[in-house]
Amino acid sequence: MAFYEENPRHISKADIVVAIPSFNEAETIAFTSERADKGLTEFFGNLRSVLINCDNHSTDGTKEAFMKASGEVPKIYLSTPENQRGKGNNLRNLFEKVRELEAQAVIVIEADIKNAAPYWIRNLGQPILKGAGYVCPLYVRHKYDATLTSSIIYPLTRCLYGRRVRQPDAGDFGFKGELVEQFLESPVWTESVQHFGVDIWMTTIALNARLPICQSFMGSPKIHRTKDPYAQLTALFRQILSAMFDLMSVYSDFWRLVKWSKPTALFGMDAQEVATPVPVDVNMNQLHERFLRGFDDYLGVWESVFDQTQFHKLLEIKSLGLQHFSFPGQTWARILFEAFKAYLAMEGEQRLTLLDSLLPLYLGKVLSFVKKTERMSLQQAEEYVENECMVFEENKPYLVKIWE
Amino acid sequence: MPKILVVDDEEHIRLLYSEELKEAGYEVFTADSGYKILERIEEEKPDLVILDIKMVDYNGLDLLQDIRNHFYDLPVILSTAYDTFKEDMKSIAADFYVVKSFDLTELKKKIAMALETRLP
């Protein structure tokens, strides 16, 4: 149960819930809440709806801003204790509340979005009411936005669990209320899942629950209040990858049987206008430097963890220099597979060092992607990502072999 | 023997696909438009659908949406003379796509992959 709850209208049952997880989002939460309220009244006016702010005990007035935001839909505020942080902990409070409310459909939307629109609520909620179990958004993204998703999260999730969910960790979702039972009973509830790892954790559980997954086209990019993709990269990278590896270990009986992948259903293809994403600048020199620095910091780790073929390939990639830099998809896939196997045999600090050692390799992979796609359109770059995913799928038997 | 439904408004394509795929060991039946395609799928229960994108009366990408919404896991391969369709997001609901050709090697490869795709 949440450490703290305010439920001024004593709501005890609901059909549909929109939840906004937060920590110190006083500046934007009223806007998000008002948009969500409008979406609920416009598209789900015949249902009993409730807006929930699940918060990390913010000190900047988030609760007050949420509660005072205009709208007709009843509100509930939940909070973790003062010193408990993390989106995962906020969502856990939400899952418990959803169970109590017996809601059929739940929508989660991030608090710091500057351009949330009421129809986003429709796009994430309506597929659930029509029978989907879980909905991931498809935001319009620049080719260099969310490179962690394009390089690791999407290809790995797709090759493991067999569904082509392009943005499985977008941060906003829709899901069937009954899925909270599986979230609450998950054996993986680690520090990483309690923080940045929670988004991919939810999608992975939904995939393994064999529920019909739907992707909803949102027609626009998601614009956050502040966005510096490198500010928290080390923590983000560690937490997401460790959450994925922990889940891989738990769901091995499932993914070992998956061969190739299948598409999902789509929703929201009636979008009237499709916005153009803001270009993302990439500093290739900096990426190359950080890749090379990895050899100074982690060469010993790589030599002990990776098969000789992969290790020698890394030395070869290093020798290419920036002008001819290229990081083959097969090497990348096998590095991640071998890192997973090594991760399982490790504990504590050793695991953290392994995860940190993968970061410069990821940055090298991003550099390779940027070099290959710099003259490509968004659609061509997207095809490139799809081909990389096929390389992961083709190499899946290698993962199964080293796992067994 | 896996059953394949070929939906294409060009007669020579239906004939070509039918003959070659029958030779390759598949049971093939055809439709010359998207008319009542969901009912047809319900009746015939194909293991896979090959769908033309540009038909005179039907847009294959819209049919793909309908098929995916009613038959969530039915493999669908888009068959097209042009690859500009990839600019339309709807195409990602297909398992694979092939560019129409008299050499069906690529199509047969994609059919085999789609049929051996396994999700427990």
Strand order of the largest sheet of chain A: 1-4-3-2-5-7-6-8-9
- Class by alpha and beta content of chain A: alpha/beta
> Strands across the major sheet of chain B, in which order?
2-1-3-4-5
Record field, number of beta strands of chain B: 5
> What would CATH call the homologous superfamily of the largest domain in chain A?
Spore Coat Polysaccharide Biosynthesis Protein SpsA, Chain A
Counting H and I runs of at least 4 residues, what is the number of helices of chain B?
Answer: 4
Question: Whole-number average pLDDT of chain A?
Answer: 95
What share of residues of chain B is helical?
25-40%
Would you identify the CATH architecture of the largest domain in chain A?
Answer: Alpha-Beta Complex
Biggest interface pair, counts: A-B, 23 and 21 residues
Reported by name, the CATH topology of the largest domain in chain A is Spore Coat Polysaccharide Biosynthesis Protein SpsA, Chain A
Beta-strand residue percentage of chain A:
5-15%
Query: How is the main sheet of chain A built?
Result: 9 strands, mixed
Helix percentage range of chain A: 40-55%
Q: What is the CATH class of the largest domain in chain A?
A: Alpha Beta
* Overall CATH class of chain B: Alpha Beta
- Fourth-level CATH superfamily of chain B: Response regulator
- Rg measurement of chain B, Å: 13 Å
User: How many domains comprise the coordinates of chain A?
Assistant: 2
